[in-house]
């Protein structure tokens, strides 16, 4: 490696222009803090293509000079190390002079700075460098390669520029990093290149093998996918062929044969049915003769009943006439008894008044009840008159009618539930009426946007029923056992009402409902929901839905009116005697005495008594005749009713049997005609079929496989469903692509085998290069151990280095370490950075490791930049470090601050003294030079 001889700076930082001698073993740069010592070292680093210290940059120094360009120039030693010219440091750059000029030119390039380098034989001044052609100037990377060929390797460059206060930096290297650094400096570059080339080649081949295997795996995956797609395509083709065969061949043939077989069967059945109808016709003729005889007996019984009824009517009229006469006589005699009772108190007005009050008290409830009956009868009669035969439903209540009238007046389209529901099955009318009783007058609006106006009217009229903004149509799929199934709905209903009616199941009785569970109702309107069970029965006169409800109401009203008439007559019968007594007492109070009335009517009372006695035998005889006539009438009526029932039953049965016979005859004839027509149509339709398919034996395998034409149609539907819903491959080119991919995979397998063979050969080459690399590495480590041991002896330090374990394996080589131990003053071994060494010992350790890298018996030389190596050292350690530096053959450029300890200058051959730039001055003062005289 070369030595530095001189350094020239032009416009570097605050240096205007100066030339410094560096032709010495140890050059010390001394000066106060901030005087430019590190600036000088950074100039040398920039000239050698290294990075500046402390995060600084050459651009910073170039800007400080406020000039357009900066020059750094140095002369270095280029003497041969042996007798051969090729041993010169710059021989590879074709420079054979004993002295070589290195130059760096930093110039503005737009808004930035750009640096270029140049080297040449001899001592070339800056002025001459301005004339050098452009092609001789080098970039940073090319410059670094030139210096690396001269001995300034990249590994040495990493440890040369020790920054301020970092003299012990090499001690911070791990054993593995130290081993790598040693080999980078001392190792045979050709061996290392061959090993690295072999490794790169093997890695490239391995990468190619991996890529080939990936391509092969990808191709095999594509081949498997294509094979699956081919399989799906062939399955799809098979299903399409089967579908086409079913659609065009099998199903038409099976349908034709099935239709022919069915037609033959129906033709035979039609003939058999006609044969079975003949006995039925004969039996009906006998039934008609028997019915005629029964009709004759029924007419005779009717005549007997008519005579008995006339006799009964005459006897009843006679008995009723005598009974009325008896009642009149009884009433006259009762008046006599009441007058006699009054005569006893005739003169006692107080007793008469009490008697009158008692009679009035007895008559008042009867009169009140009679008035209530008359009022109820008037209401029912009015309601009965309203239920005309033309009404489809009973009228609504007054409050409902008033609200509906307001809706019509406001032109709000609507309908109520009661107007749109009819009950189709009268057996379930009680259940439906009970469930819908509270929902009759729910109003459903035609348009939802009218709900605000409708609800405002409902609020004003206090309408107690729901107003629903819109309704839903009843769905077609209503459960057959639901309550909704027995209702006919002509318009929309609220959705919640539809759901309620769908949810209620119709059951025959409570036991069935409990067994099935859920929500149910019986025909007797016993309803069980989620809350429990209850009866919702209502009287028929309260029914509302449909025309049948009108009839039921009318019938119920008629029955109630009859009951009211009967009760009215009974009340009049009880009230008339009381009214007579009241009249008599009132007459007595007015002065008409009871005794006087008795005297006046004595003859009347005697005649009534005599007439009643004479009437009793005649009335008894009339009642006896009436009982006999009633007995005869009942017997005749029972006989007539029995014959009437039997006649009408036989007549209905005959009509039913005749209708059945006629219907069966029509069906038989229609079936016969259809069978004949089908047979004729089948004879026409067999023409498109192949002749071989017209025989049953030809389609027998299809019958065995599919069972029938319907089974074949089901299979066709299944195949079509599979084709429509399944994931199939329908691209016919997939088979050709599969064949091409098979050939491609075969080619990829051949390439993969070739790559595998190449990878094995490359692995063997790597093993051979690694063995050579390990041999060189062992030699290098031994040489470096020898160097640091010798340097340790010079420094008075015992140095021990453990040779690493090296095997022909990349993992072992990556994990190999160079462990170095130091023994200062016999205090025991310490490692590189285990924290047991003092500051001076750390400096000595780093210098031993560093100079050991530069120590070469064949090509001695080299230089080191050390920024403040004596920091934190006492006088003894400073002397020790100085002695060590002088004992080596390397060139050192050191920096130190101005200090009273002159021991730091003792080893220096050349001392450069820097000074601070005065305030306001553009350039820094010149650097002083102190050079030791040769002894």
UniProtKB/TrEMBL annotation:
Instruction: Please state what the protein is called.
Output: Chromosome partition protein Smc
Q: Which residues form the RecF/RecN/SMC N-terminal domain?
A: 14-909
Q: Which InterPro entries match?
A: P-loop_NTPase (IPR027417), RecF/RecN/SMC_N (IPR003395)
Segments of this protein annotated with the region Disordered: 374-398, 641-661
Cross-referenced PANTHER family: DNA REPLICATION AND REPAIR PROTEIN RECF
Q: Does the keyword DNA-binding apply?
A: no
* Domain of life from the UniProt record: Bacteria
Q: Which UniProt keywords apply?
A: Coiled coil
This protein's encoding gene? smc_2
Residue spans of biased composition, Polar residues class: 649-661
The UniProt record lists the keyword rRNA-binding: no
Q: What GO terms in the biological process aspect are recorded for it?
A: DNA synthesis involved in DNA repair; double-strand break repair
Q: Where is the composition biased (Basic and acidic residues)?
A: 375-392
What positions belong to coiled-coil segments? 192-229
């Amino acid at each position: 490696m070369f030595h530095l001889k001189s350094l020239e700076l032009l416009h570097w930082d605050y240096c205007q222009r100066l030339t410094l001698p560096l032709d010495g073993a140890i050059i010390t740069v001394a000066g106060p803090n901030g005087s430019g010592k590190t600036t000088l070292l950074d100039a040398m680093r920039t000239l050698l293509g290294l990075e500046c210290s402390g995060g600084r940059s050459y651009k910073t120094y170039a800007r400080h000079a406020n000039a357009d360009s900066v020059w750094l120039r140095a002369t270095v030693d280029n003497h041969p190390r042996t007798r051969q010219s090729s041993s010169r440091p710059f021989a590879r750059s074709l420079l054979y002079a004993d002295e070589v000029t290195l130059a760096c030119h930093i110039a503005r390039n737009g808004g930035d700075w750009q640096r270029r380098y140049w080297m040449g034989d001899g001592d070339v001044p800056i002025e001459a460098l301005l004339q050098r052609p452009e092609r001789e100037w080098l970039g940073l990377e090319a410059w670094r390669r030139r210096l690396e060929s001269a001995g300034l390797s990249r590994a040495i460059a990493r440890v040369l520029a020790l920054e301020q206060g970092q003299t012990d930096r090499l001690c911070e290297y791990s054993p593995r990093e130290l081993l790598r650094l040693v080999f980078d400096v001392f190792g045979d570059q050709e061996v290392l290149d061959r090993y690295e080339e072999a490794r790169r080649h093997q890695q490239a081949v391995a990468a190619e093998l991996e890529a080939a295997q990936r391509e092969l795996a990808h191709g095999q995956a594509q081949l498997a996918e294509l094979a699956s797609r081919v399989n799906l395509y062939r399955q799809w083709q098979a299903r399409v062929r089967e579908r086409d065969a079913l659609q065009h061949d099998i199903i038409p043939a099976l349908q034709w044969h099935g239709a022919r077989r069915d037609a033959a069967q129906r033709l035979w059945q039609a003939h058999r049915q006609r044969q079975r109808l003949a006995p039925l016709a004969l039996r009906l003729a006998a039934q008609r003769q028997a019915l005629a005889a029964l009709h004759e007996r029924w007419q005779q019984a009717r005549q007997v009943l008519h005579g008995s009824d006339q006799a009964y009517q005459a006897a009843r009229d006679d008995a009723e006439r005598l009974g009325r006469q008896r009642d009149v006589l009884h009433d006259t005699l009762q008046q006599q008894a009441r007058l006699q009772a009054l005569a006893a108190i005739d003169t006692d007005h107080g007793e008469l008044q009490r008697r009158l009050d008692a009679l009035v008290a007895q008559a008042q409830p009867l009169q009140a009840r009679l008035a209530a009956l008359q009022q109820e009868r008037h209401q029912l009669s009015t309601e009965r008159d309203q239920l005309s035969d033309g009404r489809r439903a009973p009228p609504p209540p007054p409050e409902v009618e008033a609200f509906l009238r307001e809706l019509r007046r406001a032109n709000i389209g609507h309908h109520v539930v009661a107007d749109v529901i009819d009950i189709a099955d009268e057996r379930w009318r009680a259940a439906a009426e009970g469930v819908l009783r509270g929902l009759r007058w729910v109003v459903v609006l035609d348009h939802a946007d009218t709900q605000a106006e409708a609800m405002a009217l409902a609020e004003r009229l206090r309408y107690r029923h729901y107003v629903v903004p819109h309704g839903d149509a009843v769905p077609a799929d209503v459960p057959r056992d639901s309550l909704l199934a027995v209702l006919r709905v002509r318009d929309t209903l609220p959705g919640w009402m539809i759901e309620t009616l769908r949810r209620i199941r119709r059951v025959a009785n409570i036991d069935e409902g409990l067994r099935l569970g859920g929500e149910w109702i019986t025909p007797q309107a016993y309803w069980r929901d989620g809350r429990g069970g209850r009866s919702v029965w209502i009287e028929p006169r309260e029914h509302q839905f449909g025309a049948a409800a009108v009839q039921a109401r009318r019938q119920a009203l008629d029955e109630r009116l009859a009951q009211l008439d009967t009760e009215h007559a009974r009340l009049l019968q009880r009230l008339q005697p009381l009214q007579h007594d009241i009249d008599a007492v009132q007459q007595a109070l007015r002065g008409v005495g009871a005794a006087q009335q008795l005297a006046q009517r004595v003859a009347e009372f005697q005649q009534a008594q005599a007439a009643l006695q004479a009437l009793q035998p005649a009335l008894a005889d009339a009642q006896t005749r009436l009982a006999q006539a009633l007995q005869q009438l009942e017997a005749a009526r029972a006989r007539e009713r029995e014959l009437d029932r039997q006649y009408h039953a036989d007549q209905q049965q005959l009509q039913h049997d005749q209708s059945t016979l006629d219907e069966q005859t029509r069906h038989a004839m229609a079936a016969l005609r259809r069978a004949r027509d089908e047979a004729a149509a089948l004879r026409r339709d067999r023409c498109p079929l192949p002749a071989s398919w017209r025989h049953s034996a030809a389609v027998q395998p299809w019958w065995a496989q599919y069972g029938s034409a319907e089974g074949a149609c089901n299979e066709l539907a299944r195949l079509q469903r599979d084709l429509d819903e399944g994931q199939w491959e329908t691209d016919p080119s997939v088979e050709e692509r599969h064949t091409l991919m098979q050939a491609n995979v075969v080619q990829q397998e051949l390439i993969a085998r070739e790559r595998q063979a190449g990878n094995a050969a490359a692995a063997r080459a790597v093993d051979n290069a690694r063995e050579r690399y390990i041999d060189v590495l062992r030699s290098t480590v031994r040489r470096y151990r020898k160097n640091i041991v010798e340097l340790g002896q010079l420094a008075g330090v015992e140095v021990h280095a453990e040779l690493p374990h090296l095997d022909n394996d990349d993992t072992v080589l990556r994990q190999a370490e160079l462990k170095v131990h130091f023994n200062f003053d016999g205090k025991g071994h310490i490692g590189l950075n285990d924290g047991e060494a003092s500051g001076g010992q750390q400096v000595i350790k780093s210098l031993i490791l560093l100079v050991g890298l530069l120590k070469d018996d064949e090509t001695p030389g080299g230089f080191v930049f050390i920024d403040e190596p004596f920091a934190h050292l006492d006088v003894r350690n400073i002397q020790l470090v100085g002695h060590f530096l002088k004992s080596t053959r390397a060139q050192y450029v050191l920096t130190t601050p101005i200090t009273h300890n002159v021991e730091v200058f003792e080893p220096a051959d050349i001392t450069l003294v820097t000074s601070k730039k005065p305030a306001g001055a553009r350039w820094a003062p010149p650097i002083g030079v102190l050079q030791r005289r040769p002894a």
